[in-house]
Structure formats: structure tokens, C-alpha cells
């Protein structure tokens, strides 16, 4: 089998398409034949060593978290899946491996792919969908009629947040690049601001939830936009921020931890046609490292970058 991996932490030049030995699934795990994988910023953050306190120093290290595919075999204790099932979900953070022909992941990190959702669309759902659902529902307890502000609303997590918030009856506003404002207006946002020009401190409207999906505003700015009992959602996890969150019910730090429950909700939303991430480009596995390097370097492709294994 082949996958994209690296032998030391560093920049895009570290990535190599190489052969690897497929491991057998252990207790509570699945062996999946990957069909498509989607690129996320966390993929290059893991590779450049930003999270090596979690991933360690054993090499080579595989790349890629979000995928869709078919279950090949199951380990002991797996009850929700059988060989032949079509699934989507996430690889294990430390082991990764979605940018490869096969991977082993935990049963709880995967859910069944709805028949109405294509494999390529399903590959894009896990990380953005989990971050949107966890932030809005599990952290903020979003209710119909509430007002949500999404900073970075044109990104993958931003779009997923908009769609899930609207599905749950919320009124959504947001900020993005000027080039994306028309697209966001078509998605039904109440107000769309050019992030380069808007002074968020000057906004008079207050929100029930402010979600900084692009991690570009300070906590103080986000908190200023809140109503009295509102929640500011921070996607940039750092130790001191978790400490702050312990003492403030209005401030929450998010980590994209997959679970059977959350992935199930993401799948339901996708099956209903309420959650779909735009795809900007699909390339073969041999070109996957180049596409990721371009996106990491700032290339805008109008949607998710997706790698096809076949």
C-alpha cells in the first residue's frame, strides 16, 4: 500500500509518497480502504511539529485525518460495522493515515456514509462538521432564533457552522474576504462583512454565539460582541486558554474530538441535504502532496482540496 508520510517534522518538502505495511485492526478498530481524503489545516500543523507534544518523535509519520471509504475488516469488539460497509470519519490524531490507500482507525471515529451522499462529499464532512456541531450544540446549546456571528464564514468550518446553525433555526452573520461576500449572501446570511474593512469593536449588534473559525480575532474582541449570556468559541487551543475557559462560562476552547454521537449528527445533517462542503479540486494520490503544499501556501481553490486514492 502507498501513503503520504514524512520522516521528520518540517515544511511541505518533507512529504513523500511511499509504500508502507498495513497493520491489522486491534480491539475496537477498523481497517478501511480509503476512497477519498480531504485536506485540512491541521494536516500541515501536525507535519510541521506544532503538535508534537501529542504526536511524539517516532517516524515515519502518516498524513491525513478526514476520509471516506469501505470497511475491509474489523478488530475484536466492533459491533457497529462489518466488512463492506461504506463509511466516513477521521483517522487517529497521532497515527493519521487518511492520505493513503488503507488506514486503521477507531470504531468511534467513523460513522456510516448516507446513501444519498457521495464518497467525495463524505470525505469532507468530518472535521468541519464535528467542529460546527460541537461548537454550536455541545458547547453553546444553540436554540432556534438565536443570533450567531461566524468570523471566517467562507472557510470549511465556517460554512459547516452556517449550515448547521441555519438548520437549527438560528440567524447567522459573518465576516470573510470581499471575494467571498456574494457567495455568503446567497447562503442566507443576515449580514456579511469584509474582514479587511470591518471594525468588529464598532458593531452595535450583539450575538448569542461568536465563533472565530479563522482564529484571527482576539478573545477580548469576540467577548465584546456577545450578549450577556453569550458564548465565544475559540478554535486555537493553547494551555492558558483552557485555564481561562474553566473560569468563564462565556468562553470555550474547541478541539475536534470525534465521537459516535457527533459523527452521527453530522451524517444526519448531510443525509437531509443540510450539510455539504464545496469541493475546489480533486487530485490523485500521486499529486496529493503538491495540492496540499499549494493550499498550505495560500492558494484559494474555492472549496475543499480532496485526494482520490484510485
TrEMBL record:
InterPro entries, A to Z: ADH-like_C, ADH-like_N, Chloroplast_QOR, ER, GroES-like_sf, NAD(P)-bd_dom_sf
CDD domains: MDR1
Pfam families membership: ADH_N, ADH_zinc_N
Enoyl reductase (ER) domain ranges (all copies): 10-307
Organism superkingdom: Bacteria
SUPFAM superfamilies: GroES-like (SSF50129), NAD(P)-binding Rossmann-fold domains (SSF51735)
PANTHER family in UniProt: ZINC-TYPE ALCOHOL DEHYDROGENASE-LIKE PROTEIN C16A3.02C
Identification of the protein by name: NAD(P)-dependent alcohol dehydrogenase
Amino acid at each position: 500500500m502507498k501513503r503520504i508520510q514524512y520522516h521528520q517534522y518540517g515544511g511541505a518538502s518533507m512529504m513523500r509518497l511511499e509504500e508502507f505495511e498495513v497493520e491489522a485492526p486491534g480491539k475496537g478498530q477498523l481497517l478501511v480502504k480509503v476512497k477519498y481524503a480531504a485536506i485540512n489545516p491541521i494536516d500541515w500543523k501536525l507535519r510541521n511539529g506544532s503538535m508534537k507534544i501529542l504526536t511524539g518523535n517516532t517516524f515515519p509519520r502518516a498524513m491525513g485525518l478526514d476520509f471516506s471509504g469501505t470497511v475491509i475488516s474489523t478488530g475484536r469488539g466492533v459491533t457497529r460495522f462489518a466488512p463492506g460497509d461504506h463509511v466516513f470519519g477521521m483517522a487517529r490524531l497521532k497515527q493519521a493515515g487518511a492520505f493513503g490507500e488503507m488506514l486503521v482507525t477507531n470504531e468511534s471515529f467513523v460513522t456510516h456514509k448516507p446513501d444519498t451522499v457521495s464518497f467525495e462529499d463524505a470525505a469532507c464532512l468530518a472535521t468541519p462538521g464535528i467542529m460546527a456541531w460541537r461548537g454550536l450544540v455541545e458547547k453553546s446549546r444553540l436554540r432556534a432564533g438565536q443570533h450567531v456571528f461566524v468570523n471566517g464564514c467562507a472557510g470549511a468550518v465556517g460554512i459547516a457552522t452556517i449550515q448547521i446553525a441555519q438548520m437549527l433555526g438560528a440567524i447567522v452573520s459573518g465576516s470573510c474576504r470581499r471575494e467571498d461576500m456574494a457567495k455568503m449572501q446567497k447562503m442566507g446570511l443576515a449580514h456579511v462583512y469584509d474582514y479587511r474593512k470591518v471594525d468588529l469593536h464598532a458593531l452595535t449588534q450583539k450575538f448569542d454565539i461568536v465563533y472565530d473559525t479563522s482564529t484571527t480575532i482576539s478573545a477580548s474582541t469576540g467577548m465584546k460582541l456577545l450578549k450577556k449570556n453569550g458564548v465565544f468559541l475559540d478554535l486555537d487551543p493553547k494551555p492558558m486558554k483552557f485555564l481561562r475557559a474553566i473560569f468563564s462560562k462565556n468562553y470555550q476552547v474547541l478541539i475536534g474530538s470525534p465521537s459516535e454521537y457527533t459523527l452521527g449528527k453530522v451524517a444526519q445533517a448531510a443525509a437531509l441535504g443540510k450539510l455539504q462542503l464545496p469541493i475546489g479540486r480533486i487530485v490523485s494520490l500521486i499529486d496529493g502532496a503538491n495540492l496540499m503544499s499549494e493550499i498550505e501556501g495560500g492558494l484559494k481553490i474555492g472549496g475543499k482540496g480532496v485526494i482520490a486514492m484510485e
